[in-house]
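Protein in question kept in full:
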Amino acid sequence: MRRSRSRSTDPEPAAETGAPGAATPSDTGSEEDLAAPKWNFFADELQRTSLWTKLTRMPSLTAAAVGWAWRANRRDLLLALGASTVAAVLAAVSLVSVTWVLDALLAEGPITARVRAALPAVAVVAGVAALSLAVRLVSELALSRLSTQTERIVETELFDLTTQARLIAFDDEEWADAMYRARDRGMYEVPRMVTATLDGLTGLVSLLSLGGVLAVLHPLLLPLLLVSVVPTGWAATRAARMEYEAQRRLSTGRRRRWILGDRMASRDSAAELRSYTMRDSLMADYGSLADRERETMLAVAWSQTRTRAVGGIISGAATALTYTALGVLLVTGAMPLAAVGTAVLALQRTQGQMQQLLYTLNRVYECGLYFADFTEYCTLARAALPPAPTAPPPARLERLEVRDAVFTYPTGEEPALRGVSVHVDKGETVALVGENGSGKSTLARLLGGLYSPQEGGVTWNSADFTAIGPAVCERISVIIQDHTRWPMTARRNVTMAQGCDPARLEEAARLSGTDEVVNDLARGWDTLLDTTFASGVNLSGGQWQRIAGARGFYRTADLLIADEPTSALDARAEARFFTTIGEHAARTGAAVVLITHRMASVRTADRIYVLDDGRIIQHGTHAELMAVPGRYRELYTLQADAYGGADRE
């Protein structure tokens, strides 16, 4: 497969060009590469957009978040909302009850009579407090249940999209960055945003209730209250915006650091890391990225502290002004002592509630920013879904054809395939040969329905792959060099499904040589092939390639695509594989597309296509191609000479 030099999903650092352990810009990515990715226009938009505009966008985000909660469990959502609203109203009732207590205690008469008159109000205050506690517990339980259920369906939605998206999307840097942000934090902010939204609605109801009490006591108290708490809320909101913008700028570098860290802790890369003494170099790369992130976040923390300090100073001065105004109202007789006492309590509660509401709104705003990452990725992922099929599921293969296909990777500067035309008929064996980077694997992915050409077409029995949709993959089996080592049992690594046909499994194991591998495992087919678990075992590269071969043989398919299926096998296993792949094709009637650098293995192919720089430069049988000067004869002769002419015809 052709890969662009700028492709972000290839995390391994370039070869060292300086002293050992030195990290150069080419190792870890330049400042421009890591700080100004393709989606940077969104960060610029954040800088230009006013706070008011962002706040006006919050209703749509909160509605979307609540929509997820509604899908998760509408009963818990309604219970949490109802309980929170009741708790907010009870807060105002409690304040009115306190006023009743103060009126009784400050009335004229003996202290005993005043205390006796206050007892009913005290009982009401105690009852309201107990009821408020019970209602809050119900609300917290409902919210806790709702959060877990919301996270579950959000995760399901994310992976439902990632597993359906067309393969080409994974080669797009913008798509990869968006998926990282969605997985890193975006999807986990959805339940948090639901909780913050419900808290905000509760706080708003409570504030309106308490504000009504303050307005009755004296109209001047409300504007003074706003002046005292708004600066704090402004500072908190601005601080959240600073952090989000920094996190977004760091997204690409953080993803690269995470991948480097995964390589340094992975068993698969452990041997090569030690063989090439890469430790110092990788640690330097990792440290450079980590230092860049640390410096950015330290600068953000300092800016946030300054912003919060300004907000706190303004808010403190406004609070002092509010209490001064209360003193003036008391001295001038504009408010009686009982009303002033109630006002003090009301101001304290309302101020606390106002600050809590602003904090909650800030949480909603902050969560909304990250939630927007999740929704942004979902939008990108849905755009990357294959179109709905317009043709019926494919019948048994008669002819698979690629016509004038042109294909370019999203990050590629040049096409990986240029006007390629090939065909595969029922029962044929077709070989694709060429040097590295010639386009063989890319063409195989077109034949397998994994990629769609930007120009030209791919048809199955004259029906376009795009019209057929993903159903075409059900009739194709693949054996690829870069196979996945799934953390599952040996059986599941072959069947790739929960069900199992024992007869097909036995046959696939025999054809691929996997039977020899499984016979040596203590638990046989039930052995877990992942050493990160207690009962797991590790297989060699050749053993894993046999497992991958068995996957291809196990599936009942009309077309078998084998892309370098023997690169990790020894000579005996390789010879056995090429013998059995022909046996499998003859028994099942399947067509075979074979990609291999072992030229002797393609001699019996019905047709051979020779690729160079994304073009078909020759095609024909082995005898036809050997009869004329050209790339095929050159490559075949070079390899035959390396074996002392043993393969020469």
